[in-house]
Design brief:
single chain, mainly alpha, rod-shaped
Length: about 80
C-alpha cells in the first residue's frame, strides 16, 4: 500500500520537532570543549575545569553536570 503525498506530508509535519531544544535531552560536551569555555561557563581557568572534569572520570558532561563538578572541586578544602 502506497502512501499518498498528502499523507506523507502530514506524517512528516506531525513528527517534526517544534522550535527549540527537544525536551528531555541536553547536549553533552567533551572535557576539552568545556575547558575552552571555562571562564564564561565556570568562572575559572581552563586548567581548573579540566582537572575537575578529568578527576570525575567521564569524557562527556552536560553543562549542568559540569558546573556542579567544577563548583564542588573549587570549594574543596586544601590541606
Amino acid at each position: 500500500m502506497m502512501m499518498t503525498e498528502k499523507n506523507q506530508q502530514k506524517l512528516v509535519k506531525e513528527n517534526t520537532p517544534k522550535e527549540g531544544p527537544i525536551k528531555g535531552y541536553e547536549t553533552a560536551y567533551t572535557v576539552d570543549e568545556l575547558a575552552k569555555e571555562a571562564g564564561a561557563v565556570f568562572g575559572t581557568e581552563p586548567i581548573v575545569a579540566r582537572a575537575a572534569l578529568k578527576m570525575a572520570g567521564r569524557k562527556r558532561y552536560t553543562e549542568k553536570e559540569a558546573k556542579a563538578i567544577v563548583k564542588k572541586f573549587t570549594e574543596k578544602e586544601v590541606n
